[in-house]
Amino acid sequence: MPEIDSALVTTYLTPENQEQLRKALEPAEVVFCKPDDTETIAKAIEKVDVAILNSDVDDLILTGPNLRWIHCCRAGLDKSAKPEVFERGIILTSSSGRSAPALAEHILMFMLALTYDLPMLMKAKAEHRWAATREYFYKTGMYGKTIGILGLGKTGREVARLAKMFDMKVLGWRRSTEVPENVDVVYSTDRQDSLRPLLEASDYVVLCTELNDQTWHTLGKKEFDWMKPSAFVINMGRGELIDEPVMIEALQRGKIAGAGLDTFEVEPLPKESPLWDMENVLITPHITPRLPDREERALEYVYQNIEAYRKGSGFINRLTQKSIFTKGKVKG
Predict the structure, then answer these.
(1) How far apart are CA 328 and CA 235, in angstroms?
(2) What was the pLDDT predicted at 319?
């Protein structure tokens, strides 16, 4: 059974959680430091076999000659899933799912705000205008509509659970053919299913999938052409899951009804982007309010993977070569 000899930890932790992690790693020698303390990192990385990081894997981390396992205490590792990691046989895991309930709430906020035209209501309030119009009277709520969720990881499954509270029909798109709880139909890339039936049926298209070479620009021209003119697009994944100029054109021409966007191809979103001035677009700055126990939730994945490391199997959130992203340009 392999043991951890020494570990580098760069994630921010309370003193209590730092001590708990130290005990979990015993008898390993553990170096704790801030993620910007490059001098300490450069010295420690020459020796350690395990690195538990606050953010992404960078070139300095990869200079470590003895690395066998890297854990990033975050989700969305498109910048960490480098070919070199897998070529060297380094195990790469994440804390994806630590914020799933909050991310799902964020998605629900977008859905409700777009459905009830919150931008129009806020504008009317600012103008002291009673917004009782025939058009608004004939809007319909979320109840009984169809949501298409692209990516059925922890966040996607939480979105499905919340959607069922509105008696929505839930369609999912994922690699696996397995149908999770609260999902009515799954379209699988392993089965080479088309995305078209999901997009044609969905009133809400929600992206919370991993960005990799297979998912880059998942939504392009033909995908927007398949959608209902009344559909809303919600992106809580990565900006490059969508061909942004194509989406902008779809919004301008009324091919879709609106969008709730937390991520963009270039971040921060440039001031000249037409998205800023679109009344049917909601924008958040790639930030979601924290869960009160987010640090502990992130560490739970670390503890489970320490045990998996010692057993040699059973890693949670282990990335594979399918996670590699080389297309496009990740910025921000």
Answers:
(1) 18
(2) 97
Strand partners, 32: 9
The separation between CA 167 and the C-alpha centre of its own chain, rounded to angstroms, equals 25
What single DSSP character describes residue 142? S
H helix or E strand, kind and range, residue 6:
strand 6-9
Q: Which of 267, 294, 297, 318 is catalytic?
A: 267
What token pair was written down for 254? 């009324």
- Whether 267 is a known active-site residue: answer yes
Q: Catalytic residue, from 71, 158, 238, 265: name it.
A: 238
CB 92 within 8 Å of CB 317 = no
C-alpha 269, offset from chain centre: 18
Q: For CA atoms 174, 177, 178, 179, give the dihedral sign.
A: positive
Mean pLDDT in residue range 259-274: 98
In this prediction the pTM is 0.94
Determine contact, residues 6/29, Cβ cutoff 8 Å: yes
Task: Sort strands 146-150 and 204-207 into parallel, antiparallel or unpaired.
Answer: parallel
